[in-house]
């Protein structure tokens, strides 16, 4: 969702106005995705690197986030009716405490919805996510839930913030930049990347259709490439699988304790 | 309902047909005229001059290309930023080693001394010795400035002992250098440290023991319609610009120069 500030410059309005238009565009795009039957959408809302922006802009973005999450909580009945689940991925411990509480509440209130999922990457960078996965695994080894030889790429994948999500099929980056900027680096290794020059607040349904067309044309070649890849899957050992399953369950317990702690903190 | 179905099939056919024609037409255009990306309005004036100077006439022989690149190379160094490390992603079914060695030669003439050659099938690794021999053969013909640099060809990531900053380094990578290598680094970190001590700095420090570092530019060769990373080490692709270039058999010097100029005009804000 790149290009809000450039859009604001183009229209001669304040940057926060650009971000607000960006949010309106997001709700519109999500409607289109829902109509098209797309089951899961992940959006990059705020990067840990964005904390380096001016204090004023960060404050404004946090206020915007508070306002939108509050609105989301007000609409939770509608979300539950449509079966839409909200997940926030990222290091939420870096956010202000009241925002943390709002985030956790939104996730908990839509937890059981699986018809369509929206992942909001807030206070997220892919490298931080991969580091977090390593520290989770290290915790597992320390608590004697895992052995070091259990650590492989599949286990790391199961410790990422996006472990409950499907693999992304298409990544769209707007505003003409042709890099990933620390977004879903691990998850997009065999995904179609579509870069477009359109600024995010100006993203139209035709741009979405073009992206999907690119994805459809790319898919057969991509599938063939995956079939020809040189990595062979190792055979699963039952003994390890049990241990790993137990570790993953304990990790989920730790996560829900952390969330409970956030939501029960005094104001 | 039958009529609607028929209409849908018909429309789908027409759209796919038009799209196929469009793709074939763009490939044809690529062959006939130099590839000028549509962000040229951002380039400074001297870049346009440089691009016209490098438009190679069809049928130019190899010697001309090399001479051209040597003159262009020094100009490119003055103009815009050049990537330190370029990752080449080959998506074609068959790779021609002579052609790849030529492309590496072009990069070296332009001033890029660290190049990774990656393909997801792992064929490149089997050609490691052949590439080494051919590259050393080609290096004998380098001009005086470059002749003093030694050429090393490495398999996968290497540590400092085997890496020389002053030489020309070519890395041959496959999927085992991607996620499996990260898992290996994870095992090393977990074995050494307490989980409270693990933060991004520690992981970065450990990853930085290995060369090559993050590529600034990734060039995807071949006719995939969209960019894909196909399993290249995810940790290193954080800020990598990803650009597509034609098939490695058809790519010309001016394609490469315009891609480098395009790279030079990209603005990195690093989150700010």
From TrEMBL, chain A:
Residues 48-82 form a coiled coil. GO terms for cellular component: dehydrodolichyl diphosphate synthase complex; endoplasmic reticulum. Keywords: Coiled coil, Magnesium, Transferase. It is an enzyme of class 2 (transferase). Pfam families: Prenyltransf. It catalyses: n isopentenyl diphosphate + (2E,6E)-farnesyl diphosphate = a di-trans,poly-cis-polyprenyl diphosphate + n diphosphate. Its EC number is 2.5.1.-. It comes from the Eukaryota. Belongs to the UPP synthase family. This is Alkyl transferase. It comes from Daphnia galeata.
Automatic annotation (TrEMBL), chain B:
The keyword Magnesium applies. It is an enzyme of class 2 (transferase). It catalyses: n isopentenyl diphosphate + (2E,6E)-farnesyl diphosphate = a di-trans,poly-cis-polyprenyl diphosphate + n diphosphate. One of its GO terms (cellular component) is endoplasmic reticulum membrane. GO terms for molecular function: ditrans,polycis-polyprenyl diphosphate synthase [(2E,6E)-farnesyl diphosphate specific] activity. Residues 1-26 form the signal peptide. Pathway: Protein modification; protein glycosylation. Its EC number is 2.5.1.87. Its main location: endoplasmic reticulum. It is found in: Endoplasmic reticulum membrane. Gene3D superfamilies: Decaprenyl diphosphate synthase-like. Its cofactor is Mg(2+). Keywords: Endoplasmic reticulum, Magnesium, Membrane, Signal, Transferase, Transmembrane, Transmembrane helix. InterPro entries: Nus1/NgBR, UPP_synth-like_sf. Belongs to the UPP synthase family. This is ditrans,polycis-polyprenyl diphosphate synthase [(2E,6E)-farnesyldiphosphate specific].
């Amino acid at each position: 969702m790149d290009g809000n500030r450039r859009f604001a410059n183009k229209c001669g309005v304040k940057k926060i106005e650009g971000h607000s238009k960006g949010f309106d565009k997001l709700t519109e795009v999500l409607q289109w995705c829902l109509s098209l039957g797309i089951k899961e959408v992940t959006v990059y809302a705020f990067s840990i690197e964005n904390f380096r922006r001016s204090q004023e802009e960060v404050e404004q973005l946090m206020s915007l986030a508070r306002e939108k999450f509050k609105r989301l909580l007000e609409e939770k009945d509608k979300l539950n009716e449509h079966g839409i689940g909200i997940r926030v991925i990222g290091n939420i411990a870096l956010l202000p405490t009241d925002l943390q509480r709002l985030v956790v509440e939104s996730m908990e209130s839509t937890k059981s919805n699986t018809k369509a999922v929206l992942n909001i990457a807030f206070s997220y960078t892919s490298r931080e996510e991969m580091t977090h996965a390593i520290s989770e695994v290290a915790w597992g080894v320390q608590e004697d839930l895992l052995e070091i030889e259990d650590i492989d790429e599949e286990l790391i994948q199961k410790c990422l913030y996006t472990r409950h999500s499907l693999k992304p099929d298409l990544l769209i980056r707007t505003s003409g930049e042709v890099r990933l900027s620390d977004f879903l680096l691990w998850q997009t290794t065999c995904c179609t990347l579509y870069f477009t020059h359109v600024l995010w607040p100006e993203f139209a349904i035709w741009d979405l259709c073009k992206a999907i067309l690119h994805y459809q044309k790319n898919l057969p070649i991509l599938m063939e490439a995956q079939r020809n890849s040189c990595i062979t899957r190792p055979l699963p050992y039952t003994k390890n699988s049990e241990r790993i399953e137990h570790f993953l369950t304990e990790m989920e317990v730790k996560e829900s304790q952390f969330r409970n702690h956030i939501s029960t903190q005094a104001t | 309902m039958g009529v609607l179905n028929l209409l849908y099939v018909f429309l789908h056919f027409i759209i796919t047909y038009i799209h196929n024609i469009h793709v074939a037409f763009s490939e044809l255009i690529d062959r006939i005229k130099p590839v000028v990306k549509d962000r040229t309005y951002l380039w400074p004036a001297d870049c346009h001059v440089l691009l016209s100077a490098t438009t190679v006439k069809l049928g130019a022989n190899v010697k001309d290309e090399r001479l051209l690149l040597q003159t262009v190379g020094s100009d490119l160094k003055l103009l815009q930023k050049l990537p330190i490390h370029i990752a080449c992603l080959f998506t074609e079914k068959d790779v021609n080693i002579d052609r790849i060695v030529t492309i590496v030669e072009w990069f070296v003439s332009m001033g890029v001394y660290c190049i990774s050659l990656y393909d997801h099938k792992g064929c490149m690794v089997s050609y490691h010795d052949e590439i080494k021999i051919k590259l050393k053969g080609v290096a004998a013909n380098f001009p005086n400035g470059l002749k003093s640099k030694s050429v090393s060809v490495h398999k996968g990531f290497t540590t400092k002992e085997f890496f020389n900053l002053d030489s020309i380094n070519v890395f041959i990578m496959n999927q085992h250098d991607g996620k499996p290598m990260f898992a290996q680094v994870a095992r090393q970190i977990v074995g050494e440290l307490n989980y409270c001590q693990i933060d991004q700095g520690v992981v970065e420090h450990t990853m930085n023991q290995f060369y090559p570092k993050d590529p600034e530019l990734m060039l995807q060769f071949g006719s995939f319609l969209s960019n894909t990373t196909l399993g290249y080490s995810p940790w290193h692709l954080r800020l990598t610009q990803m650009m597509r270039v034609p098939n490695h058999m058809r790519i010309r010097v001016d394609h490469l120069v315009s891609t480098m100029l395009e790279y030079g005009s990209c603005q990195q804000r690093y989150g700010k």
